[in-house]
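A note from the maintainers: we've had questions about how concatenated examples are separated. There is no special marker in the raw files; a new sequence line simply starts the next protein. For clarity in this README we add a label.
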Amino acid sequence: MMQMVVLLTLAGLICSCDDRDTAEHNVKNDGDKPALSISTIEELDETSVFHFAIISDNKGIATEDTDMQRCDAWIRNSAEFVLGLGDHLVSDPDPFLSFIQNDSYWRTNFYPNIADGENQYFSGSQAKWGTGGKMFDYVDDFWGRPNVRGQGNGVDYYAFFEVSGFTVHVISLHYSDSYDGSKGGRSGLIEESRVFMHDTLLGIDKGPKDIIVVLAHSTGGDFVKSAGLSRERRDLLFQKADLLCSATTHVFQRFDEYDSQYINGALSINTGSVGNTGSTSGYVELHVLDDPPRLVVQYMNLEQDIRKLQIGPITKTKAKNPTDPVIKQIGGRSYQFDWNDINAVPPASRL
């Protein structure tokens, strides 16, 4: 599925130095596993089973832009696949649309999400629900891909990726932060999308190596708050999924207010923005580790010349609580960690 293409550009050059220059070297471990120290992003790549990426809100920019040039180089060199989270397009002419149509890696490995930016590009209005679905015509036979099942409305879909004994299940929902109400209700996440999410979650027979990711663009940065979900549907979402991803605010952020109610529930984040941001430009990488199965979730800073581990919180941010890299146990807790020992699990009292 992945094409290994080496780009010897400044954006893609790899640094062999220790990424943890500012980290504290106080290795601790809970005793269950030997300490495992990670010094560079390349070490993490080698330690993980595989990894994938999520990008959002690039708003038409492609590789003529430095941030997108780095994003492209870093992702195609190692990521198994790329998930989109909307607002990839703005207005004609759109360099990103031409880029994904003509680049073999993105044309086959990119899974877009449709938001208001896509609606605007194809219909002239962000509020015209679902019109952005034409974007799928610009990647290879999207609805004919054997790992994709559409809802039938041309925008919502379920996709799965089987890699090295793991299965990543993706539920991608159309959520426009501008909405004309033509489909009923007050939320950009309409009832047929909520039903599709609910039924798809129920239909996944989740095991220890099944990773469930739900994508929806949002209105205010956290789609859960404004999606109009019933208590039953919200409980199912947090109890069954592992990762909930929102966008639109261009700020990488963890929404930890759900952790006390759903102790082993889904990790909820905003995936930031490639360019077009008052905060740090970047995208999310997710490394899958085994024994035990877990995700390392971090923000790749595109304002740096080289791809590096995220050390500490993203400091250039509009988020009230800047977000550190996080480990999400599959079916278990989410917690901050120390790169000097990624096997160490903090006691519940420190979460």
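[label: protein 2]
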Amino acid sequence: MVLHELGLALALAPDREDLREELQRISTLVDERRTEQYERLAQEEEAAGHWSAAAGAWMRVAGSQPDSAYPARRAALALLQAGERLDQARSLAERAVRIEGDSVGHRIVLVQVLLGLSDLEGASKQLQIVTGLDPDSELVKDLQRQLVLAGHGD
């Protein structure tokens, strides 16, 4: 309501910089609140095992936070858990890795998505990087075994 009224006021007085600034400030606050709500919803959906709904909520958070790796990773993981739109999951996981390339967690999700897509070569390359970052991780060792069982690796 306030956003609409400020927008109308600005349309009537486009030279009012104070109105433009107030509209931007309130719009930013509304966007932040909406993002917080979607993040809470995503966490609730994950806890309930509703992976498709969780993915949708995480994708909204990721869309409003393009420079944040965490929601992109969570959206990719939720899509993987739901077993749907794995190409989109790959894109989100790759985005998380581009933003925070030294994160073992982001790269592990990317490896899992690549395995889900049967991209064994891509999974192997990413797993080599993850192994260098955390060679003692049990999850990394498990992914290495999965890759061998899938027919790629030593």
